Amino acid sequence: MKRIFSLIAGLACCLTAFAQQNLMGTAVELKSPDIHDDYSVTFRVYAPKAVSVRLTGDFLPHHVADNNGYVTEVPIWVDMTEGEGGIWEYTTGPLPAELYSYIFRVDGLPYADPSNQFRYRDMTVWTNWFLISREKGDDGYMYSANKVPHGNVSHVWYDSPTLGMSRRMSVYTPAGYENGKERYPVLYLCHGAGGDEDSWLDFGRAAQILDNMIAEGKAKPMIVVIPNGNAASAAKPGEWEAGLYQASMSGAPAPGVRAAASIPQAFPDVMNYVESHYRVLKGAANTAMCGLSMGGGHTFDVSRMYPGKIGYVGLFSGAQSVRQSPEYDKEVAAVFAAKPKLYYVACGTADPIFRISESFEKYLADHGYPHEVEWTDGAHTWKNWRHYLMHFAAKLFR
């Protein structure tokens, strides 16, 4: 009996090893990206039959590109050099502390780095990413999972009567929340078009940013709520009954699908759930909302539709436009009549939305509405939005 058991166990081990060899043994093991002591980075890919291998990443120089009228800065493509054994390489100069993304192109086709398991999906496009940190407290450090107390992230389903569906959102609770009785202020954090309730957690690194900022005393402990900002969708693709559909800018599960109401109209459903299920401090002084691009537009709309509800408003490359109408003037006036503690407008000067943000900031200035503005280099990118989140979070609930 023992011999039979040994034979079965041995066969299982062989089958396991064979499966691992089939899955993993055919690839050439390479170190890529290879971060050197001077913070330069070498990328490598095995492509022995390729004629051309190229690389692009947000650490490379940028050029202005026009994509169907959407003018923005995009990184250039650089040629990689083929070496011995069909291994192609490219080495950068020393890079500043930051989170970077990149992708290969082999004979004209997009190609993920098989040596780097860390990948991020932006709508339907996957890119590899890596972190560089030169010292404690720099950007790369703030985006890393460090040895600090960690908050928890939950995916929560809640009922939205306004949209007529059960919907999914992500909720970050700070370290110690589950073991205490303390109440916390709330930040509602909104994603952009084509994103979902996981976008700020994935490439936005929101949980790591909050963990590190709270641990260093740079931000107050807070609950962070990330709703799904696509009114026609209950959750990210693959996480609800619509199935494995392809993500799109509209966020809808199929072309032409529309919701009965907008996300700003349905925002009270989110707030009601959060305030009834979490230990939150209520009132405008304890409530913040910010978002990028479409999410900035949602933030602006919520603040004007429900004046006095949001005490801290942040528009990151916000998709809000100035409208010439008495009704618009009245709505914005009501926002500032409620005396928000902070109204923050930020955008990159190379962002296609910069003119919209600039025009809106001028409108606020012309009307004497108190606000803070931050113009930075760069385009419509996560690099800017992560920075804006850190800058905004540091100002909250003081």
Q: What's this, in brief?
A:
27% of the residues lie in helices and 28% in strands. By secondary structure, the chain is an alpha+beta fold.
Descriptive notes:
Helix 4 (206-215) runs parallel beside helix 9 and helix 5 packs across helix 6. The protein has 398 residues and is of the alpha+beta class. The protein is globular, with a radius of gyration of 24 Å. The model is unreliable at 1-26 (pLDDT under 50). The chain contains nine helices and 20 strands. The chain folds into two domains: 28-132, Sandwich (Immunoglobulin-like), CATH 2.60.40; 141-394, Rossmann fold, CATH 3.40.50.1820. A hairpin with a 4-residue loop joins strand 13 (152-160) and strand 14 (165-173). Strands 13-14-16-15-17-18-19-20 form an eight-stranded mixed β-sheet, with helices on both faces. Strands 3, 6, 9, 10, 11 and 12 form a six-stranded antiparallel β-sheet that branches.
